[in-house]
Specification:
The complex is a heterodimer of chains A (96) and B (898). Chain A is mostly helical. Chain A contains two helices and no strands. Classes of the chains: A mainly alpha (96), B mainly alpha (898). At the A-B interface, helix 1 and helix 2 of A face helix 5, helix 11, helix 12 and helix 14 of B.
Amino acid sequence: MSRNTPPPIFLQRAGYRQRRIRDAAKLLPFLGMILWAIPLAWVHGDATTDVGTAGLIYVFVVWVVLIALTAFLGSRIRADGDQTDASGQGGDEAPR
Amino acid sequence: MMPFSALVVVALVYVSFLFGVAFWAERRAASGKTAWLYSPWIYTLSLSVYCTAWTFYGAVGYAARSGLEFVTIYLGPTLVMVGWWWILRRLVRIGRAQRITSIADLVSSRFGKSTQIGVIVTIIAIIAGTPYIALQLQSVTLSFAVFAQSDGSVWVQGDFNQTALWVAVCLTVFTVLFGTRNLDANERHTGVVMAIAVEAVVKLFALVAVGVFVVWGIAGGPGDMLTRIEASDIDLWDQESGRWVSLIFLSAAAFICLPRMFQVLVVENSDERHLAFASWAFPLYLFAMSLFVVPIAVVGLDLLPEGSNPDLFVLTIPLFQGETELAVLSFLGGLSSAASMVIVATIALATMVSNHIVVPIWLSTQGQQGAMMSGDVRNVILRARRISIAAILGLGFLYYRVSGGGTALAAIGLISFAGAVQVLPAMLGGVFWRGANRIGAGLGLVTGLVIWLWTLFLPSFGIDAVISQTVMEQGPMGIAALRPQALFGIEGLDPLVHGVMWSVLLNTVMFILGSLMTFPHPLERLQGAQFVNVFDHSKAAPSWTGAAAGAEDLLIMSQRILGSTEAQAIFERETERQGRIGAFPEVTPAFVDRLERELAGSVGAATAHAMIGQLIGGSSVSVEDLIAVADEAAQILEYSNRLEAKSAEQERTARALRDANAKLTALSIQKDAFLSQISHELRTPMTSIRSFSEILREGQMPQEVLTRYAGIIHDEAVRLTRLLDDLLDLSVLENGQVVLRKSTGRLGDLIDRAIGAAGLHDGLLEVRRDPAKEDVTLTTDLDRLVQVFINLISNAHKYCEVDKPVLTIDVTRQGNMTAVDFIDNGGGISPENYELIFEKFSRISDESKAGGAGLGLAICREIMHRLGGDVSYLPQRHGTGFRVVLPKHAISPALEKT
């Protein structure tokens, strides 16, 4: 990507931030999958009997955390089209 | 206790309220006040059709039986919503870009708008969807029964059936009224969505209210609740891990594959940004829906007598505690859940049935002209939708009747999910993998459908209902590898996990294999590119990046398009703006964009984009670009065609003007020639008259000389008079002032008169005639006609320079044309003079024998034109011929035969 005059550093940083926010948003479901799979390890691990309510609370706490993270990222994320997507350098779309 | 009839009234009032909401929303939408209707809140709430009566009532029962497993049904959709950037954003964009109307439409249009694929997806959706609808009918019926029984009455099977029937009929009416009122191009149903949003609030409120009542009303707050849960018989972590993971996958997949979910997620979506809002708001909704499920289940098991149906705890706990209002609220929540699911699912299924089954069949039976009348198709579609809605609800009711409404039905929920999920490989493969094709999709779908039917759906009717005990244990025809719950001999798996695993796995394998080994149609490849690269093609294209083009190249190109002055002005302005010194500005993306807009003003946006793309080299030219270029080219072509037509017309006009000018010039020359001719003609006799009269004035000459001179003067005066007469005659004829005096006579008599008057007294000219042919009666200006004949005969007399001149006068008939030919045996006329002889003062031969001024034939032609006939030269092998075509109307019809 050869730009002869680099745009102001502020813009570049914003574009970079935006791309990382999208990365984070994409990673969230995987985080959820892993976190919600952990109780299985408790249950089928050493079979300590007291998984019950702790596991229940755990599942719901993970849920709240996921919702909060999604809301946070969703408020920061720019749906492309609102503004010309930071010059499209990131290749964050599907491969052409 | 609340009387049952009061409950029915409450239910009816609630349903009418929903009608009102839907109606109000449609009115607002029609009047354009949509800001509130299309808010992200409404979108999020409409997604709650996912929470059906099965989850409203059934989740508690599920928790009572299998502990925390129920929550997987909510965790899957949560993961999908949280990961909206992956799949949902793409689906919504494709749905908007391609105007997708249903999941069958999505899959079929991805695979080259294939009708067969659409039909397969529709069939899967119907088979999987019908039991689910039956389940809703069952839950509403059961909740009615709970109230009736608490009222003291005992319901038998007939009561259940009747209630279910009434519920089905009510839902049909509602769905037909608001689902098929109009045929929106985008298949949006504002009224229905609004009603569903209201129902979503009601069911959430009802469930939370019951939960709050249970936690704080019955138990002593959250702490006490947790102790109770700990102490209860429910084993929260009962399930094996395979089921936990499978169910999360299943519910996640079903969340995007269920026709009703696709309808609200993609089809009813009015703004892509709503998705970002719903990505956290809908998981929050699901969270709230499931938060109190375990407490209610635990309290229900504690509180209610042994053997109570845990599926109805949400209703029976408030009733047991005497909280009738809460119970009614809970009932309305359950009713809302059932109604919203049934309405949306039915609309989605009816859309698919009408678009992918009925309309193709109708079009193929109508032949060619069917497709021409769009109004017709519209009516057919609307009618097909209404009938489909009734038929689908009818199927649901039938399924409810056949299955007996027992516990077998309760298990169908997840099996139904598994059926819907068979679309997943084709759908995801279609939107992420360009190599996916129609054959692969078809193979995968059919494989998945068959395995699902064999391992999950058919066994769900119970042992020996469809599949016999023997087949279950030993496989069909003793083939153990095909046992419905132990395919390929793998035993010991949970039947649901087993069925989901094999159907989705083999479905995917067939889909991939089929796609790899076959070749797609061009349309499939085009659609594949459009779907997979939807973000490249839709909305604003990314701006120019690589500045590979030199400013000089851009300037050269701009000069070609804009002209050099303007192009240079643009470049100078830009240089100034950039604060640079020198001829060329820096090629920044902003400048390229500006330049492109300037160029677009001249050559159209697409062409400008493509041209700059050529120079910059940074962008691929998309199909849309090419199509847009083609459009513009077509417009330009049309414009230039119009210009060409116009210039051709102008050329024609110019040519006509040139012709007219040439004619005028020729006429002017003719006029000059005529004047010089006439002065010459007049001058010759005048000269001899003047000179002889001068001689006579001098006198002194013998008498005979005197007489001869006077004779010459007289002759010349007569010639002069004749010339003037002729000129007058011609002028009268040419100006059209001649008055025709019509009379009737025989052609033979006219020729006789002409011969007599032509001065053939010397007997030199022999005239040959055929009197029989001359027996034609004419009605016209006979004197004028005779004048023509005289002229022709005397011409023959004058100019026929042979020893024995012979004139043949012959009457010929060709068709209805009658002509008189005057043919002599003279020298004839050379072809270039054929027309010339009819001009004034034209004389071919030398003047010595010419008595006249060359006006005769000109006069003849004028006369014949006046009379409505013609005279022309008749080329002969030997001699000169003239043909006088007699006027058509002059010949008396009665005598024509003779």
